[in-house]
Amino acid sequence: MSSAYVRDSFRTKVATLLVAEGFEFIETINLAESTGELPPKWFTLDFLPADDTRMSLGVPALFRETGAVTLAIFTPQHERDTEAIAAADVVRSALCNWIDTTGNLRVHDAQPPADLDGGDFRGSFYGVTVDIRYSFDRIE
Question: Going from the N-terminus, what domains does the chain have, and what CATH number goes with each?
Answer without folding.
Answer: 4-28+40-139 (3.30.2000.10)
